Structure prediction request, 222 residues.
Amino acid sequence: MDGIVGSLRLGWRALLFKEDAYEEMRTAANPVVKGLILIVVVGVIIALVGLVGTALEWGSTPNLDQMRDTIFPYILRMPWWDEMPSATRSEALAQFQSWWDTGWKFLPTLFGAPNIGGAALNIILTPLQLLIWWFVYGILAYLFAHWLGGKGDFSETLGVLALAVAPQFLNLLTLLPFVQVGNVVSIWGFCVPSSASRPPTSCPGRGPCGPRCCPLSWLGWC
Prediction:
């Protein structure tokens, strides 16, 4: 538990651009493990907050099954339905009913209806996505840094780059009504790894390098 709390505090300090956070991560006994804990915990917290928000939205959304059953009879009263030959009307009705029911199973979710199952699945998918970004980004940053003459260790690079997940804390604000963070997370995510590159990957005679030299840093930590 102390390791989890300590990692969260470290991430919070990185969010506020406290340079000692990067140095503490770099000098940790195992920066990769510490970074792994931070990313997984932040990912799970963000997903749980999203689940709560989805549940609240679902609780305030009209019953979609009732909406489906209410709208369907009015469709059958439209003029084009009466113009259909009576011989094929029953078969067409059965086929249309099948399409209608199938469509209502998928279309509401595609158009933004709350999906509690999907939100619960994000408890696994969100940390996994962040871990993949972290690992891929870390490899590219390490290669770019050493290509430019950096001397940083790969584990140190991964450790300090784990702090780039800190802007995900801003997603907690979306629990408040009508609050949207938009691209703030991505923009902040660009600044944090840029600062995080300094301790482990400084290039002699060329200034800091690593994530800010890597083209993917322009996209931020998405």
In short: Residues 116-147 form the longest helix (32 residues). The CA atoms of residues 15 and 166 lie 5 Å apart. Residues 62-110 form one domain.
